[in-house]
Structure formats: C-alpha cells, structure tokens
Amino acid sequence: MIRRGIATFTLDTGKCPKWLFERMVKLGRCLVDVIIEEYGPDEFIERISDPVWFQSLGTVLAFDWNASGLTTILTAALKESIKGREKELGVFICGGKGKTSLKTPDEIYHWGEYASLPEEGVKNLIYNSKMAAKADNSLIQDGYNIYHHTFFFSKNGVWTVVQQGMNTENSTARRYHWFSKNIKDIVCEPHSGISADILKVPCLNMAAKESEENRNLSKEIATTSYIELIRDLKILRKHSNNLSKMVAVKSGEVETIFLELRNTEFETHPVLNEAFLYNRYLEKILWTVYQQKPENYEKLIAIAGVGPKTVRALSLVAEVIYGAPASYKDPARYSFAHGGKDGTPYPVDRKIYDRTILFFTEVIKRMKISPLEKEKLIRKLI
C-alpha cells in the first residue's frame, strides 16, 4: 500500500454541481463513520495518505477519477461531512483550496485547543503543515505551484497532508501525499510512494537522497560568509550566457575549475540566467539566512522568505562552484492506477486491486443507507 505519493491529472475548470457535492457529503459522512468506528481515527488518517485509496474514495463518492477537481472537491466534502462532530470522531480536517489553505495554521490551533491537545503537539502539527507545503513548493521544483493544502490529523497526533499543485503550461495538476509515521527526514526523500503520468525534465529535486551533499554544502555556504557567497554568485553571473562551457575561477584560490556543461541538464535548465542571478530580493533573503545561521538544512528551509529561488541559488553555487551535485530527476516513479490491461505503465496488481475493492465493499455494506444506494456504490467498484 502506498503511504505517501504524488499523482498527476488533467487540470479541471468549472464548478462542482451543488447536487453532486451534497451527495458526496452525505455518502462521505456514512463512509467516515463506518471507517472510524471499525478501524479508528488513526487508520482513517493513514488511508487518506495513500493516493490510490484516496483516488478510490473519490470514485466511490461519485467524482471523476482522473481530474484535478477530485482532490479539491473530495477534501471539501470530507471536511463538511464531519462538521460539528470532529471531537466525537477524533478527526480534524484543516485548510483547503486557494485562500482557504492559508487558514490552515489557525484551524489547526483552533481544533487543538478545542480538543485539549498538548500545546507543544499543536505547534508541531502547525510546523509540519508549513514544512510540507514548503518542501513540495521549493525542494521539488517540478513546475507545479501549490494551490491546495489540506491537513488531516487525529486526536492522537497522527497526521496526513494532501496538497495539490498546478502547471498551467500543460494544463495538469499533481497531488502530493504525506503521512507522519513514515517520515524520517522532512527534507530527504519525503515521498516514498510517488505516482505521476507526466515527468518534468529537468526537475531540481533537492529532496532526493542524491542531493544530500548539495544540501549540506548549501547550508554551509549560506552561513559561513555572506561576502563569499555573493562573490560566488557574481562569478556565475559573469558566465551565465555561456551555458555550453562555464569557467568558474575562485578569487584568491590557485585552482581553476573548468566545468563542461554540454550534454547535461544544465544546458536546458532555467537556473542559469541573468534575471535569476541578478535579484535584489534574493540577496536580501541570503543576508537573512546568514544572520540567523540555521544549524541544518531543514531549519534553513523553515526561515520565512526562503523559497524556490533561494534554494536554486544555493544549490547552483554548491554544484557549479564547489562540485556538490544535485539531483535533476523528477521524483515521480509510479502511476496512481492499479495498472493497465496492456501492461502499461505496469501489469495490474490483482492483490492490491482486489484488496481495495474488498475494503470498500465491506465498508459500504455497513453504511446506514438504503439497499438500493448500497447496490449502486458496489456496482461502481466491480
């Protein structure tokens, strides 16, 4: 079972009909009640973190299987379905689409206080919510801008993030899942079950294990000498127009570093350009980082104002000037579907397929709805 991951879909336009949303809320209420009663709130949170299960849930509740709207409408319907019963169920849903996502920290604080959760635990939930958004928006630079962020958590402190980014160039959306119990390092391989149909090439992936040396060096050069860092950026600025061959000469050092950039990701990567390298705001943020001197890369990323440009600048200096490579591979590896009948993207996994159907069939049978409704839902599964 995939615990965390990314799924890619077509970008939806339009609005969900009121009658459909109301039906999704009604069915969602019945499903949530049965799942929590049978398996507990933590199990519900964990299942939401599985992109395959999440997609199946959206299909059961009558939404399109392959559209970006499934994410936004399904999370909104689930949030509405538990409204007024959060403390009773032991499950809390915060955030949503657009401006609603900005309210996530306040909503987490509100529900934490309402449920009498430990203050330190609530602070950690807020921190993890912010860091998940930062990681997917800044560390994985895949061309998808986060516009939807929903934070699910239980009374026991188990949490899941479901957020979505959009790429207006190819009209697709990509969904990111996180599950608290599986995260060992929030800035290194935070997605273990990645699924997508479209790969972004090149994609700066600072969350990859292969980028560890680059992350460590980025933190070091950002906190050691601001003057030296700006000097390094000036070297890159001087040679930014010559992408086929860059000569980086460190001032005051004997060694001259010749880097052949032909036939590499740098040749087509938008990092090296004057508009990016000449950025007053970037230098201001780098000065802030230098003054605060974060003790590790995670704390560097957590600093207010540090975003994709700061990450790219530090990564570029670490790689081109100091030789610490970063990963440019899109972390997406798997399709969110069960598989294809023709073996594409891979053969159907019958065990997972049957297990998903069996789970929802059993849950539907326990739902307090009419036999006709149950029959309709089960037909959708089989």
Q: What is the number of beta strands?
A: 9
Strand order across the largest sheet:
1-6-5-4-2
Described by strand count, sense and barrel closure, the largest sheet is:
5 strands, antiparallel
Mean pLDDT: 79
Number of domains: 2
Uncertain ranges: 243-272, 334-346
User: Into which percentage range does the β-strand content fall?
Assistant: 5-15%
Radius of gyration: 23 Å
Tally of separate helices: 15
Provide the structure class: alpha+beta
The string of secondary-structure elements, in order, is EHHHHHEHHEEEEEHHEEHHHHHH
Question: End-to-end distance, in Å?
Answer: 20 Å
Percent of residues in helices comes to: 40-55%
Folded structure, characterized:
This protein is 47% helix and 14% strand. The protein has 382 residues and is an alpha+beta fold. The chain folds into two domains: 5-200 and 333-381, no CATH class; 209-321, no CATH class. Strands 1-6-5-4-2 form a five-stranded antiparallel β-sheet, with helices on both faces. The chain has a two-stranded antiparallel sheet with strand order 3-7. A hairpin with a 4-residue loop joins strand 4 (145-154) and strand 5. The radius of gyration is 23 Å and the shape is elongated.
Quick tags:
382 residues, alpha+beta, two-stranded antiparallel sheet, 47% helix
Task: Map the helices and strands.
Elements: E1 5-10, H1 18-39, H2 41-48, H3 51-60, H4 69-81, H5 86-89, E2 91-97, H6 104-114, H7 119-139, E3 140-141, E4 145-154, E5 159-167, E6 172-179, E7 204-205, H8 212-224, H9 226-238, E8 245-249, E9 256-260, H10 274-277, H11 280-292, H12 297-302, H13 308-321, H14 350-366, H15 371-381
Antiparallel strand pairs: 1-6, 2-4, 3-7, 4-5, 5-6, 8-9
Helix pairs in contact: 1-2, 1-4, 6-7, 8-13, 9-13, 14-15
